[in-house]
Amino acid sequence: MSRILATARSEFLIALRNRWVSIAVAMMVVFSLVLSAAGSAPTGALGADRLSVTVASLTSLAVYLVPLVALLMSFDGVAGEVERGTLPLLLTYPLSRAELLTGKLFAHVAVLTFAVAAGYGSAALSAIATDSAALAGTPALWRLFWTSILLGAAFLCLGYALSALAQRPSGAAGLAIGLWLAMIVLYDLGLLAAIVADGGGWFTTELFPWLLIGNPADAFRLYNLAASEATAAAAGIGGAANAIPPMHALVSMLAWPVLALGAAVLIFRRITP
Amino acid sequence: MMQTLTLSRLTKRYRDTEALRDVSLDVAPGERVALLGHNGAGKSTLMKIILGLISFDSGEVQVLGAAPGSGPARAGVAYLPESVAFHPALTGLEQIRHYLRLRGEPARLASELLARVGLADAGRRRIGTYSKGMRQRVGLAQALIGHPRLLVLDEPTSGLDPVSRRDFYALLDGLAAEGASVLLSSHALTEVEARTDRLVILSQGRLVTQGSLSDLRRQADLPIMLHVTPRTGASGRLAEALPQGRMNGTALHMSCGQDEKLATLSRIAGLGEIVSDVDVTPPSLEDIYSHFSRRDGQ
Asked: B5-87+139-218 maps to which CATH number?
């Protein structure tokens, strides 16, 4: 454990020096504030409090931004050590490869937590400042916060796996962008196309829900929207969210970081320094 | 007494080439061993196997009585890679603190370690701003953490100036006196001969010879060069007296085997007044080194 913490400490310092902390915090704050300002219009019509509406907007934002920030921080994780030539020395220390990756994960999750807290926090403050009933949305905001960390952890670990697979930062960066496009953008479009083509058949009723929670980003969206009626209403997809039990989505979100970290360690073990 | 390091009949193949073949080597506690060889002779491969970084095909390796790369082996072995690298965003102190923590040592020892390698003032600067020699010293500082029982140093003095090299070898002497074994690689025989107990020469993956410098000198049995300077006007008579020599301007050059040295010298001394001076040049360290490392027709 002390070795994991030592690694986390140094990695956090590196993230701070490389401006990753400031970049991640700035990105989250700017986008959150813009969204909370833009999302204030439908409040009255839906009868939801202002914060719940903000949370609905933030959920859509987080699905795109949190995986992106996570992948940007993690794609260098293994490939960077290989490229710099720091890996052989590190691996002669009494430090296992799993401990090394876990240490990096701790540091990057800490950076992500800062960024998400700063982003959501500023959006929440602006919501509460203009609507006294907004405090009713606090549980939804809290849920959004910790699920965002889980979502980020999943993509951090996927980033390490890609990094170990590519062994070169340039290759790892390409794979990371590809993964983001595939899992965040194209996945939903593909499912949508399949549903349209299926026309309400077996795919739509049986397979589709599993495919939806199989993707951590969709599981994240479902869990946050299903867990709060107000947010679901604000997001306008309450029907879809209720079709899948939120517990399934939660299990998916918990399983992804663990499985991805396991995969990353296995791929990392194949690297000969 | 248990050996710090035991290699027996170690063989490592990379696809169709044999990087190491039947290498057997023991290193005792407190012994300083220099590994010599050309680029590609197998020095780095041998070191990486000892460190457990790469696997081997056959033979046996015992590091501190354990398998290479196992917990006890890693805990007692320090490594300095060839052209060592660190994260450029960290300062020297931060980097050493990190390594101290990984070895379970208190992080406050970092400044003391940096001072030992002469980097006390640069500790707060980022490693990205360091020269190659300074990075090498950071590498050396991390190798001193926690009283290692075996130090594996891959060309440790590359990038160091002559004064730093002397300091470095003084540091090694101290470590060896405390019982640590040192296995270091080098291209330069001249540099390591006085500072190590044993020389091991690798060539094309095979251990061609090992021993102290005088052992190697005896084994190589290279001829000794003699330069005989005649008195003025006596060069013709000298050339007649020593027909095996070659007159070259002002002096006569000849060579003889180790065992003929005294006989030849007494013959030259017997020539009396036609000889003004004799210089005896034993085979240089480079000659001995190339004799062993080029034996396979390289």
From this structure: 3.40.50.300
Contact at CB, A86 and B85, closer than 8 angstroms: yes
This prediction has a pTM of 0.86
For B83, the closest chain A residue by CA position comes to: A85
Q: What is the pLDDT of residue A47?
A: 60
Token digits for A244?
A: 């899948």
> pLDDT digits over A119-164, tens only?
999 988 888 887 777 777 788 889 999 999 999 999 999 999 999 9
Do B85 and A18 make contact, defined as CB atoms within 8 angstroms? no
Listed residue (A90, A96, A88, A37) closest to A61, CA to CA: A37
Rounded CA gap, A190 and A184, in Å? 11
**Domain extents in chain B:** 5-87+139-218, 223-282
Chain A: residue whose CA lies nearest to B139: A89
Q: Does B53 touch chain A (CB under 8 A)?
A: yes
Measure in Å the smallest separation between the Cα of A54 and chain B Cα atoms.
38
Please report the pLDDT score of residue B298 as a whole number. 44
CATH architecture of B223-282: 2-Layer Sandwich (3.30)
Q: Tell me whether the CATH fold assigned to B5-87+139-218 matches the one assigned to B223-282.
A: no
Token output for B105: 């040592």
Question: In the block, which residue shows the tokens 């719940």?
Answer: A52
Coarse DSSP helix, strand, coil percentages of chain A, rounded to the nearest 5 percent: 85, 0, 15
CB contact under 8 A, B94 and A94: no
Average pLDDT in chain B: 87
Report the number of distinct structural domains present in chain A: 1
Reported ipTM: the value is 0.86
- The string of pLDDT tens digits covering residues B82-94 is 889 999 999 999 9
User: Residue A192: which domain range?
Assistant: 2-269
